[in-house]
Amino acid sequence: MKEADVKLKGKMKRMIFFIYAISLCSVLSLGQTWKLTETMLATLDKDGVLIISTTASSEAMPDYSPYNFIPGPAPWYDVRGNIVSVIIKDRVTSIGENVFERCENLTSVTIPNSVTTIGMSAFWLCSSLTSVTIPNSVTTIGVGAFAGCSSITSIIIPNSVTTIATGVFNGCSSLASVTIPNSVTTIGEIAFWFCSSLTSVIIPNSVTTIEYAAFAECNSLASVTISNTVTTIGECAFYNCRSLTSITIPNSVITIGRQAFDGCRSLTSVTIPNSVTAIEWGAFASCSNLTSVSIPNTVTTISDFIFAGCSSLTSIIIPNTTTSIGSHAFAGCINLTSIAIPNMVKTIGDGAFGYCYRLKDIAVNWSIPLPIDYHTFIGIDKSQISLHIPDGAEQLYKVSLSWKDFKVR
Q: If you count Cβ atoms within 10 Å of the first and of the last residue's Cβ in the chain, which end, N or C, has fewer?
């Protein structure tokens, strides 16, 4: 074969490959179609609009799973960056689990009135989605359905929904307003965690439980209205809500959970009603601007770390019903100047009043000194604190290992 013929054949092969590549690009630019079920199709057009439709009278969208898990992601996962809009046609009854996860360029979605369920993680990490209208037909919004949708600015939950599921709006950092309807009875765990643009929230009269970390790390949250149907404020419910300045706890609340308001450093006052029987571990710890608080006489146990690090707290009223003061309960309350410990108290925990540097007066009512741990008042010069005791008990306190170092009055 002549050298010229070889060169010609090489050029022809390259030309054929080039034509094939152009043809393939043209096909791709026209869009792609996937068969989700026997009667449900998904079509992605050249403009990035994904349309999901069914020929059945009604049909649920299939569920998918995160990448590398069975059954695997949605069929368009590898081209998800091309999807800018989703239109779900009528007769589709559910949005499947993980179906649009990580569609980072998705900006809008149309949900028809036929949809009753939005599946778990359905729109997880759709970081460009700015708004979504959830129709009144929807009764269930799954766990983490809109988690990580960092561009959504507002959301209206329809009054057909009864539960705000775990993590449903977790990490929606641009969410500035949310409307919770009177149909909702439970706000689930980490439901609005890290919604750092949320400034206010009204919890309606239907809600009975605010669960674990429901509004934790909502750094801009300045106003919260809790309805008088709420019985439990869960663990870490408002943890580190640094802009929250005041809170009124309704007299329906029975339990304030562990670290419920821990780190709410702008909180200056709090009213705890007589309905509350339990204030758990560290509930108001590190509320560094809290100046005063009154504990109701329905509370018998002051839990560990409950007001630890409340550095602006100047006074505290411990009710006569109190039987125990937990470890480090008031540790680091450096502006606390006086404390009256009622005679019903039988135990005081390790470091309960540690590092309360400005403590000058302690009043107790035990005729026989209560034995306490050596570290109960750690970091304090006891010789500078006046200890006010019952008449006739002076000698007992002066020889008590627990109390002899104070200025007995």
A: N
